[in-house]
Design a protein that fits this description.
Length: 366
């Protein structure tokens, strides 16, 4: 069972993380669809109705038996999706969960623990939160942040009540610091940081919760800016920070940058998200006006290193997939609505999967 550890420690070493089954798992569900066994029934053709407790391990055995009986093209797609379905799937609780009200957030959190996570008992679920940027879009002012504060506190309280003493890893607030430059420029960063301090204190106080604060990405903010903001966000009360959550920078770039941040942030350890960085980022031709990376379903990307808590790097507690590979980032490059699992993209990412850590490392296909 996870126990919170100070930043100098590593609370994740040896943890077995939650892998979703076919009822709720996005890649597993896409495989079921390819096999013609979607949830529920079709008229005149009864189909299995998956239970919450059916694990990926159980379902994968069934898939292996079916593979010889499907076409080569379907078998290929299934094998690619298995690369995602067989790995820990990070769940999200956000401003959009059950409408985003505190009651809805509580209901969604309870659903995850009492339904979704029963597919893989005894494992540790990973949950990312997305309330700040999910509610305060663009460049919110101090006044806008302060106006949101009471509701935000009720939302975080709801997560804490629903979680209780259950073991969990929380990756707090996607894009929290990575997309904070505009907020800082207009003077809203102190109010922004105060909301994170509340989230860290509330969720970090749970007996078997381990929390990491979003620290951004190596191609966005300077290490000193990031470290100062993390320190003001009570990084010393968290297990550490995490990077590359919505970017696709090479893992080695994130580690070099994260080590610099760590030295200025009480030696905080960190996690690198490797969900889609196996081919590195797709760089924009005009970074000053377009941003460094193409972040909207960029073509040619691939899954990065598999989730792993034995990274070989002293400050890096884990490589994890902070998002579900294959989720669309919006209506661009043919994508569906943001946050929607897009099987075609997932298959492409899996086809180009590489465990290589950086541009100068040998190819490591899997």
């Amino acid at each position: 069972m996870l126990s919170p550890a100070p930043p100098a420690g590593d609370p994740l070493r040896g943890a077995q993380f939650f892998v979703d089954g076919p009822r709720h798992g996005l890649a597993a569900g896409a495989i079921a669809h390819l096999l013609g066994i979607d949830r529920g029934t079709q008229i005149g053709h009864p189909l299995p109705s998956f239970t919450d407790s059916e694990s990926w391990a159980q379902f994968s055995t069934y898939v292996a038996r079916r593979l010889p009986h499907v076409s080569a093209s379907v078998a290929f797609k299934i094998r690619m999706l298995e690369k995602i379905a067989s790995e820990p799937e990070t769940q999200r609780i956000s401003a959009y969960s059950e409408g985003g009200s505190p009651e809805g957030v509580y209901k969604q959190t309870v659903k995850l623990f009492c339904h979704n996570f029963t597919a893989d008992p005894g494992t540790i679920p990973i949950i990312n939160t997305y309330f700040l940027h999910g509610t305060l879009h663009g460049c919110p002012s101090t006044g806008e942040i302060d106006h949101y504060r009471p509701k935000f506190k009720r939302q975080i309280d709801a997560i804490a009540r629903a979680t209780g003493s259950r073991p969990v890893v929380f990756l707090l607030e996607l894009d929290y610091l990575g997309s904070s430059g505009c907020i800082a420029k207009h003077g809203g960063l102190p109010a922004w940081e105060s909301l994170m301090r509340f989230e860290v204190s509330k969720l970090g106080a749970l007996p078997h919760a381990v929390v990491y604060i979003e620290g951004g990405y190596s191609d966005a903010n300077r290490p000193r800016y990031t470290a100062r903001a993390l320190n003001r966000s009570d990084i010393s009360e968290a297990a550490g920070f995490y990077t590359n959550d919505t970017h696709e920078q090479w893992t080695t770039h994130e580690i070099a940058w994260g080590d610099k941040v760590s030295r200025m942030a009480h030696g905080a350890h960190f996690i690198v998200s490797t969900a889609q960085n196996g081919r590195g980022p797709k760089l924009n031709p005009h970074p000053t006006t377009q941003g460094v990376e193409d972040l909207c379903n960029p073509p040619g990307r691939g899954l990065g290193p598999k989730p792993n808590t034995d990274t070989g790097f002293g400050n890096v507690d884990a490589f994890l997939w902070a998002i579900v590979p294959g989720n669309s980032s919006g209506h661009c490059n043919g994508g569906p609505s943001g946050g929607t699992f897009w099987p075609a993209r997932a298959i492409g990412l899996a086809e180009r999967a590489q465990g290589k850590l950086g541009p100068h490392y040998a190819a490591d296909r899997y």
